[in-house]
Amino acid sequence: MIDGGRLDRAQNSEFFKKLQSKSIFFSQSITYGPHTIAAMHAVFSGCYGNKTGTNSYWSTYKFKKEKFKTLTEYLHKEKYYTQADVVNELVIPKQGFDKFLIHDEQKNDLTLRHSEMLQKMKEKNLQGENFFIYLQYSNIHTGIMNQVLKVFDNFSSDYFNNRRLNEERYDSLFLNAEKYLEKIFDTIKNLELEKDSIILVMSDHGISVGEKIGERAYGVFCYDYTLKTFTYFILPGISPIKITQQVRTIDFMPTILDFLELGVDSNYNSFDGESLIPLIEGKILKEKYAFSETGNPLEQKSPPKEPNTKSIRTSKWKLIFNEYNNTKELYDLQNDPNEEKNLINQNLEIENTLWYELQLIINKN
Ligand SMILES: [Zn+2]
After folding, report:
1. CA 35 – ligand 1 centroid, Å
2. What is the pLDDT of residues 41-96, one digit of tens each?
3. What is the predicted pLDDT for the residue at 365?
4. From the CA of 237, how far away is ligand 1's center (Å)?
5. 185 Cα to the center of ligand 1, angstroms
6. What are phi and psi of 324, to 5 degrees?
7. The whole model's pTM is what?
8. How far apart are CA 238 and CA 179, in angstroms?
9. Can you list the alpha helix ranges (DSSP code H) found in 128-210?
């Protein structure tokens, strides 16, 4: 998981183009939360955080683990050895992991560290054990933390007036992520893990390069530069394909379970997400609405306890609801991908449809 990886950068990258040529690539996969904690709890549970309890920076321990079974728990029950290496203990649900490791993002060499971990997995594999390993590449975040979060605030003119500098800063961090992934894939290839492993390369959310005043990094707004993530699935025996239809990161877990033919445990709540295998096999799957939410800190230093900014999206339209001041925004994503022209209150039918659907999700129907 490339933390803070932007889709547009991946699509311009030689390495990611190579990766795409052997993957099932989703060009519109939408995250539930534009920050790690909410985003990844949703991925691991296949459910939105407004149901699981993890809907903000503050709510890792509010995750309703009696009601939501994580991907790790499913695999652990199937006797997979399960291991994570992450930036801190709050970012993903811990349950089901045999080994839960935390790296020092300022000090550790993640390329080396993760390559060694893959070697260990191979040894387990040779002894007849299946494994699930979750590796977080946290160094884009590290750079943004040191060079942006600690230096500017969400309204600093020094930041927003220097778009080119912001772009260059992000690009150099992204380049390191590419180098990391290239080495990791070399290791995977050398260990011959590719043949019979599901490999998912994903980002949890994007990061601003100064598009909208009020958000210097991520987690403030629900615009596409943070909501759109990149997703490359390698599934043994399934041909590469590019899928442009909107999907949601909550669909990944049901997809993996479906591919492994693991039944859904009816003792737990059902998923908000759904298996994408039909889509991957070229069949028709009706596009679903994608819901996202976050806590805009406004003038405060830290985000609120509960989300105050919500959005609902199709591949063509997005409605944003700014709950803190009761305003809405509507964007025509096809003709205005940068979300610059707010079309709210112009009697467009889609506004009513999206508002209705958003209410359904907020009220958990
Ligand atoms: Zn993140």
Report:
1. 5
2. 999 999 999 999 999 999 999 999 999 999 999 999 999 999 999 999 999 999 99
3. 56
4. 31
5. 21
6. -65, -25
7. 0.97
8. 26
9. 139-144, 157-160, 163-190
**Per-residue pLDDT at 163 exceeds 70:** yes
Distance separating alpha carbons of residues 304 and 150, to the nearest angstrom: 19
Give the CA count within 13 Å in the CB-facing half-sphere of 303. 24
Q: Can you spell out the DSSP letters for 16-72?
A: HHHHHTTSEEEEEEE-SSSSHHHHHHHHHHTS-HHHHS--STT-GGG--TTT---HH
| Cβ partners under 8 Å of residue 231, min gap 6 | 25, 26, 29, 200, 201, 202, 247, 249, 252
Q: Interhelix angle for 110-126 vs 163-190, to 10°?
A: 30
The label of the residue with tokens 């230093």 reads 301
Helix, strand or coil for residue 113? helix
Ligand 1 centroid – CA 91 distance (Å): 8
* 42 Cα–ligand 1 center, Å: 13
Q: How far is the CA of 141 from the centre of ligand 1 (A)?
A: 7
How far apart are the C-alpha atoms of 219 and 34, rounded to whole Å? Answer: 5
- What is the distance in A from the centroid of ligand 1 to the CA of 83? 19
Going by C-alpha positions, the residue among 168, 230, 331 that lies closest to residue 23 is 230
What single letter denotes the amino acid at residue 114? H
Please answer whether residues 17 and 243 qualify as being in contact, where contact means their C-beta atoms are separated by less than 8 angstroms.
no
